[in-house]
Amino acid sequence: MAEAVREQYDLVIIGGGPAGLAAGIYGGRARLKTLILEKDNVGGRAYTTREIVNYPSVAETTGPALMEQMQAHAEKFGVEIRKEAVKSINVSGEAKLVKTRRHEYEAQAVIIATGTTARKLGIPGEEEFTGMGVAYCATCDAEFFQDQEVVVVGSGDQGIEEGLYICKFASKVTVVVIHDEGILDCNKVAQERAFAEPKMHFLWNSSLVDIYGGDNVEGVHVKNSKTGEVTDFPCQGVFFFCGMIPETKFLGDQVPQDERGWLHTGDDMDLGLGGVFAAGDVRQKYLRQVATAVSDGAAAATAAERYISEMNDFRTNVLESDTPTLLGFWNPEIPGSLDLLNQLREENERSAQPRKFMELDVTRKKSLAVKYQVNLTGEQPAMTVLVGGV
């Protein structure tokens, strides 16, 4: 097998959904050599959303239309977009390495914006009939069920809104709901639309037992949680909208994750690894929407640009200099920290051999504080002496 080709970029963004595209726009505008890697359609899951009515200033549009506009916007600023799946990353060094099947990309900073994938329930028949009546994307597959009966599993925003879209094609859409009659997990507007849609029906206090069929889905068995009765429900399609799981398996042990695989960041999207950021639905966050993904992407790229600029300046003025440099890390949020730092500076100036002195605010130079293992909340200034980068 031929050796992978290694290419260099300032910023590599893994994931081309709204968060990744927004990050690309900000990275491109900052004159960073920026690459977006997306394994599927540019636009991610948003691309498969038929109707978007809550993106500010755009009263109504489709997922493909909005994502294509974002892609064009990013490319306008010189962002390169490639359709490649990332297999692994190595972010342990100053240069970050991102590997796909055929290429290796080296970058000063990386933004992880890989989003989520549909959660599977693992019930009998689900895997067997995937692509043969079982589906997870209404925009992708609803048209294949023209004038047929379909079952939807999931009563949250995604399940009800996607179910309403399926109603445009199917003759009947039945939602399996675990709650008592009249209780859905979706927003009020979607609920009102669902109850007013003549094609949409509900099986309350119910859960899916299994899916059966021959070459394709022919029906499901549904269990009532109150009576214990199992009902045979003929249908030709089953759509699952039961939540999402983060696309983080490829990260291995390179990036800390919680027990469910979500990535945790601060407001600056920093993962605390020095030049590694996360944005969009892959983060543990309160709301996952196109608008919040775009916000994340903007913050991540801005933080990445500042990190790159900071590291480049530091490399030139300190690491590549033969002049001994005294780094003074201080925290403006801690009373007295600056006073103590000033005392250390004065002592350095009075010494027989004063060194070059550089002040570093840990709230603004967090990446350097992390690099030199400085306690970001420490009450006393931290001092480090470097000579030729050592």
Element pattern in H and E = EHEHEEEEEEHEHEHEEEEEEEHEHEHE
| Cα separation of the termini | 39 Å
Gyration radius (Cα, Å) is 26 Å
Assembly context of the chains = single chain
User: Stretches where pLDDT falls below 50 for ≥5 residues?
Assistant: none
Structural class: alpha/beta
Sheet with the most strands, sense and barrel status: 7 strands, mixed
Mean pLDDT: 91
Instruction: Please tally the helical runs, counting DSSP H or I stretches of 4 or more residues.
Output: 8
Tell me the total number of β-strands.
20
Strand content: 25-35%
| Estimated helix fraction | 25-40%
- Shape descriptor: elongated
Overview of this structure, please?
- The chain has 390 residues and is of the alpha/beta class.
- It is 25% helix and 27% strand.
- It is built from eight helices and 20 strands.
- The chain has helices at residues 18-29, 63-76, 138-141, 157-166, 188-196, 290-319, 337-350, 366-371; strands spanning 5-14, 34-37, 80-82, 86-90, 96-100, 103-112, 116-118, 134-135, 149-153, 172-176, 200-203, 206-213, 217-224, 230-234, 237-240, 244-246, 276-278, 325-330, 356-361, 382-386.
- Strands 1, 2, 3, 4, 5, 6 and 17 form a seven-stranded mixed β-sheet that branches. A five-stranded parallel β-sheet has the order 8-15-9-10-11. It has a three-stranded antiparallel β-sheet with strand order 12-13-14, with no helix packed on it.
- Helix 1 (18-29) crosses helix 6 (290-319) and helix 4 (157-166) runs parallel beside helix 5.
- The longest helix is centred in the last third of the chain and has 30 residues, at 290-319.
- It starts with a strand and ends with a strand.
- The mean pLDDT is 91.
